[in-house]
């Protein structure tokens, strides 16, 4: 008998606690820790977001599963910004519509999922902002305004250009400091 995906996901997460375990299009994906370059980009983004987040009582979480619905995939973005006391699905999963910003840094094998698959899962779950930082293309893409199961707005800037974040952020990401 084949076990349901949710059960296999939990088993994989329990077997590999030091890795990022996600379900993407019905497959279980186990990712190693990021490279030093990947982590440096995340650190530089974190430095830019921390003031705005802390000033509003928000929190920035690494390695939390985003709950997108009962039969939907389970993604684990590199960074998740949540308001104080967000709505949780379980201890390890926050509801997508209870987030403020999700961010991923593209790695060698994640480009397709980060650019195409994950936005198709995040938008129907009403994730307000999804930021994709691509050191290979030297660009940053922001998906925003989820409506009708898709993102109505996609903004792409080259590394070095500012990327304004919509309300309630009131700040622009200095992409020259990311890569």
UniProtKB/TrEMBL annotation:
<dbReference type="Pfam" id="PF05685">
    <property type="entry name" value="Uma2"/>
</dbReference>
<keyword id="KW-0378">Hydrolase</keyword>
<dbReference type="InterPro" id="IPR008538">
    <property type="entry name" value="Uma2"/>
</dbReference>
<keyword id="KW-0255">Endonuclease</keyword>
<feature type="domain" description="Putative restriction endonuclease">
    <location>
        <begin position="16"/>
        <end position="168"/>
    </location>
</feature>
<keyword id="KW-0540">Nuclease</keyword>
<dbReference type="InterPro" id="IPR011335">
    <property type="entry name" value="Restrct_endonuc-II-like"/>
</dbReference>
<dbReference type="GO" id="GO:0004519">
    <property type="term" value="F:endonuclease activity"/>
</dbReference>
<dbReference type="InterPro" id="IPR012296">
    <property type="entry name" value="Nuclease_put_TT1808"/>
</dbReference>
<protein>
    <submittedName>
        <fullName>Uma2 family endonuclease</fullName>
    </submittedName>
</protein>
């Amino acid at each position: 008998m084949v076990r349901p995906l949710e059960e296999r996901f939990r088993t994989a997460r329990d077997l590999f606690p030091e890795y990022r375990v996600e379900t993407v299009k019905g497959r279980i994906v186990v990712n190693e820790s990021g490279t030093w370059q990947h982590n440096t980009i995340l650190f530089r983004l974190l430095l830019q977001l921390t003031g705005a987040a802390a000033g509003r009582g928000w929190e920035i979480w690494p390695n939390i599963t985003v709950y997108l619905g009962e039969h939907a995939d389970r993604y684990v973005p590199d960074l998740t910004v949540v308001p104080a006391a967000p709505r949780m699905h379980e201890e390890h999963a926050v509801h997508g519509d209870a987030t403020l910003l999700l961010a991923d840094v593209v790695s060698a094998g994640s480009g397709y999922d980060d650019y195409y698959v994950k936005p198709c899962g995040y938008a129907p779950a009403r994730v307000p902002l999804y930021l994709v930082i691509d050191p290979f293309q030297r660009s940053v893409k922001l998906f925003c305004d989820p409506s009708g199961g898709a993102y109505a707005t996609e903004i792409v800037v080259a590394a070095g250009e500012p990327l304004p974040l919509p309300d309630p952020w009131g700040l622009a990401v200095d992409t020259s400091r990311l890569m």
